[in-house]
Amino acid sequence: MTKSNNRESQYPIDPMFLDRWSPRAFTGEIIEAAELLSLLEAAHWAPSSSNQQPWRFIYALKGSEHWEKFVALLVDANQEWAKNASALIFVVSRSFTGVAGSGEEKPSYTHSFDAGAAWGYLALQARLSGFYAHGMGGIKHEEIRKTFDIPEGYRVEAGVAVGRLADKSVLSERYQAREFPSQRKPLSELAFNGRFVAD
């Protein structure tokens, strides 16, 4: 059993897993490119099937010429708070193996799974580096595809906001009420010995 960050695990784990969470309150301070690239460096060392490394990251730093375009590619509810992040990232995965358009091209069953592993590494490295990362499904997937000329065979997976933690008072009342590390279901509801249980 491990306790940290007002959370408690049922079995012993490293506290960093409890310390990682997804806040919305960010300071809006500028992040150096090298700091963000360190997070992406960790992400790209994630495990992947046959070492295909299907993840791709498109990013913008706050204050850059690309920032407003990236903010506009989030759904309105996420724009409200993510505009105060220090960086925004879109995670894209390559859904095939081999050379595009060749006889070697085959569908990749695990591309999204592998991209999710990379996001997890990014989130943990962010926390270890004094930042927080908040993953978002609330992005304009098709607009992102068009904006960046992402071809068929690539899937726009998610967005990520990265920044330093601010006091929750910077958020609207509805988000202030949700600004705390969430708990998890008991492991027994998710892990089954020798059988599967649907809910």
UniProtKB/TrEMBL annotation:
Keywords: Oxidoreductase. Residues 19-62, 74-164 form the Nitroreductase domain. This is Probable oxidoreductase protein. It comes from the Bacteria. Belongs to the nitroreductase family. GO terms for molecular function: oxidoreductase activity. It holds the Pfam family Nitroreductase.
